[in-house]
């Protein structure tokens, strides 16, 4: 059986704070229809694709912010997306704010908020759910910032690990699917956990401001896109997988997010890239057989990984500077 699939990334232009879910879902359905017309079997929408990037808005009591989250998928507002998936026989990935009542790590049942993504089969069934692990930004209002980035206030750290599911996609039969969300793409540990499960297709959405407010010195505009692409290309190459990385882009509530969504192959090559910062489809044909080369040669993990040398990765969170070497010391201090 051929292991070829056609994938689409559906980049979104800005979603303003006042834009209702119905309007947004209409845009998503139009993009999904376009993806279907171009032969795609899967379409990937960005992180928090149903609303504006609400973590930029400070809210004293997070309980007043529940309207930004989804408590059910599908809901009345999102049902047209699920109906369209069935109509066009296309699977889709979407990121959203999730509100759920479930026990916390201490076993206490309570309301919880996550930055979540799901992959939905063309039947409308949710095949895979992932909750963002690497939450950037800060918890409290930061008066020094022009624009807040309150992901640590709005979301708990994801508690599902980095799952990979083997599920049918289009004509290709089962495909090993995994997900990352936005900032996760910068962390090689996250990619490697997916790679260790033989992931073949990584779907990821992002909302990335085009200026870095944390930069002490100047971080050139173009390097913001470069760092995003560098991370995704390296992740795909080092883990022998395809990646579909999709932005919400443009000027949203006065804040600029970059676009430049890409589809990447296991050689780390960009197969397609968005050219606008608006609603735009990118499409590529992916031969999943290409995952075999890296997986069976340079990145044959069973043959070449040396876990005995990686202890620090799990034992240590922050970096620690070494003692200074002085003349007369032994090698390595
Ligand atoms: N959404 C998200 O994760 N954005 C981050 C930028 C955060 S800037 C405080 C990213 O890594 O793209």
From TrEMBL:
Whether Cell inner membrane counts among this entry's keywords is no
Q: Which GO terms describe its molecular function?
A: hydrolase activity
Q: Which Pfam families match?
A: CN_hydrolase (PF00795)
Q: Identify this protein by name.
A: N-carbamoyl-D-amino-acid hydrolase
Residues annotated as signal peptide: none
Q: Which PROSITE patterns match?
A: CN_HYDROLASE (PS50263)
Its organism's taxonomic lineage begins at: Bacteria, Pseudomonadati, Pseudomonadota, Alphaproteobacteria, Acetobacterales
InterPro entries, alphabetized: Aliph_Amidase/BUP, C-N_Hydrolase, C-N_Hydrolase_sf
Keywords (A to Z) from UniProt: Hydrolase
Q: In what residue span(s) does the CN hydrolase domain sit?
A: 5-288
């Amino acid at each position: 059986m051929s292991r070829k699939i056609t994938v689409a990334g559906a980049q979104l232009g800005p979603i303003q704070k006042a834009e209702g879910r119905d309007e947004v879902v209409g845009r998503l359905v139009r993009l999904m229809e376009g993806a279907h017309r171009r032969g795609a079997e899967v379409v990937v929408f960005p992180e928090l694709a149903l609303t504006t990037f609400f973590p930029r808005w400070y809210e004293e009591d997070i309980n007043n912010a529940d309207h930004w989250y989804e408590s059910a998928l599908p809901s009345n507002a999102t049902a047209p997306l699920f109906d369209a998936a069935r109509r066009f026989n296309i699977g889709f990935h979407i990121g959203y704010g999730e509100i759920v009542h479930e026990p916390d790590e201490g076993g206490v049942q309570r309301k919880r908020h996550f930055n979540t993504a799901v992959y939905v089969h063309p039947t409308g069934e949710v095949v895979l759910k992932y909750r963002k692990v690497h939450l950037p930004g800060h918890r409290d209002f930061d008066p020094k910032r022009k624009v807040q980035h309150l992901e640590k206030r709005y979301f708990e750290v994801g508690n599902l690990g980095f799952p990979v599911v083997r599920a049918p996609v289009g004509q290709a039969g089962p495909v090993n699917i995994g997900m990352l969300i936005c900032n996760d793409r910068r962390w090689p540990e996250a990619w490697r956990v997916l790679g260790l499960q033989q992931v073949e297709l990584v779907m990821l959405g992002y909302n990335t401001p085009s200026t870095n407010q944390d930069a002490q010195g100047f971080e050139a505009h173009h390097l913001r896109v470069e760092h995003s692409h560098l991370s995704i290309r390296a992740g795909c190459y080092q883990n022998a997988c395809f990646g579909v990385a999709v932005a919400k882009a443009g000027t949203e509530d006065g804040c600029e997010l970059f676009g430049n969504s890409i589809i990447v192959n296991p050689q780390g090559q960009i197969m397609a890239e968005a050219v606008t910062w608006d609603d735009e489809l990118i499409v590529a044909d992916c031969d999943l057989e290409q995952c075999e080369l890296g997986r069976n040669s340079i990145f044959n993990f069973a043959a070449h990984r040396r876990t005995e040398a990686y202890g620090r990765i799990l034992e240590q969170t922050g970096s620690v500077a070494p003692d200074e070497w002085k003349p007369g010391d032994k090698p390595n201090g």
